[in-house]
Amino acid sequence: AVYMCEVERHHPQVFQNQDKESFSRLEDPLPAAEGVTYELCAGIVDKPDLSLEEIACGEILEECGYRVPVTHLRRITSYRSGVGVTGSRQTLFYAEVTDQMRTGEGGGQPEEGELIEVVEVPLEESMKFAYDETLPKTMGVIFSFMWFHDNIAPKLPKK
Prior knowledge:
Blueprint lengths: L1 H9 L41 H13 L9 E8 L6 E7 L31 H6 L7 H13 L8
Antiparallel strand pairs: 1-2
């Protein structure tokens, strides 16, 4: 969706008087990177026999490569996203990971269209990152950085 919004912004003529049957190929396509965004680790709640925490731990392993015990998750809050389209309920958790918890590469499942790279943002650059409008990110990312800055960062040892 992000990529298609960029296509429309750069090539508005492509979408004029078009329907699904007559939609033409873009002669000068944008680089695929135009559709890449910074997002939180997430997943669909589609396993009724698992708790939200168990699903979250599975997504952390699949997408980021860290094995996090359920007891290491801290529930932050639930909120609605995509209110104009899906009205999805999302629950945000916080977990700290160490190098010793890394048991795989992560990256998600390419067969499901996932192309995931784990990105580390230094604490001293985190709020600049959160507010940088040139870096495409979800509101959940911005909120989580603000939450971390208010609730975790003040308790960290000073360098």
